[in-house]
Design goal:
The chain is 85% helix and 0% strand. By secondary structure, it is an all-alpha fold.
């Protein structure tokens, strides 16, 4: 009887050991699968990141071209050709000016494009900065709001309005400046990539009369690409950055 009980205990222990080993093996297999999926996700995000960088460089070149052409048009119309031609005849100065003239419009166009794109993308950057947003929200909650009375002096009313909206003034100014930059960007692209030959008035006439076959859709596509492609890439880069951040956060929490 005692031998039978010992045999049963041994079988029970063997069964528990086998079950425990099976659970450990299952956890190891699950952990291995998660690591494999995590590595694949990380590789995909890394490849997408570099593809987006390459696309950003290509679209940057396309976006700089209208600015370079606009700068060349302005330089051709404003430079004193007589005086400039005389300078080109000088031995050393002329060589330097010739070298500079070959890429001056590209350099100036690059600077102008960089300034406008920075202003356009600045609200996007601020929107993705959590510390900046938290500081504005906290300051706005703590900020004392002054009631504006009709009996107040106009200057005091203006000061109260200014003070009441001061916490959100930065983001408001950034959005207004971005709108101004988009307007300037649109006008530059419109001059380089006109959708219809004949200027803006002809374009409005074509749209009003429904003669859409006269529209140069290639120029329209180039204009839309110049206006919005770089901002879309900035959004994509932030999206990939968020994926990378939460991926690392999930691994550290596990």
């Amino acid at each position: 009887m005692k031998r039978t009980q010992n045999t049963a205990d041994a079988q029970s222990q063997a069964s528990e050991s086998s079950a425990s080993s099976g659970r450990a093996s299952g956890r190891k297999s699950e952990s291995s699968n998660q690591a494999t999926v995590g590595n694949a996700t990380r590789q995909i995000v890394r490849v997408l990141y570099w593809l987006v960088i390459i696309a950003a460089l290509w679209f940057a070149y396309l976006n700089i071209n209208p600015y370079a052409q606009a700068v060349r048009y302005i330089m051709d119309g404003t430079l004193d050709r007589t005086f400039f031609g005389w300078l080109l005849q000088l031995p050393i100065v002329g060589n330097l000016l010739n070298f500079f003239a070959l890429g001056a419009h590209w350099l100036i166009g690059l600077i102008l494009w960089a300034v406008i794109q920075t202003i356009e993308c600045f609200p996007i950057v601020l929107k993705h900065d959590r510390s900046f947003q938290r500081a504005i929200i906290n300051d706005s909650d703590r900020n004392q709001q002054y009631a504006i009375s009709e009996d107040d002096d106009p200057a005091v009313q203006w000061l109260k309005r200014w003070y009441n909206r001061f916490p959100t003034l930065t983001i408001r100014k950034a959005r207004n400046l971005a709108l101004f930059a988009y307007t300037a960007d649109f006008l530059i692209c419109l001059s380089v990539y006109p959708p219809v030959d004949g200027g803006v008035s002809q374009f409005l006439f074509v749209v009003a009369t429904g003669q859409f076959q006269l529209i140069n859709w290639s120029n329209v596509a180039l204009m839309m690409t110049t206006l919005f492609a770089f901002e879309a890439i900035v959004h994509m880069l932030f999206f990939l950055a968020h994926i990378t951040w939460y991926y690392r956060l999930s691994r550290s929490a596990a």
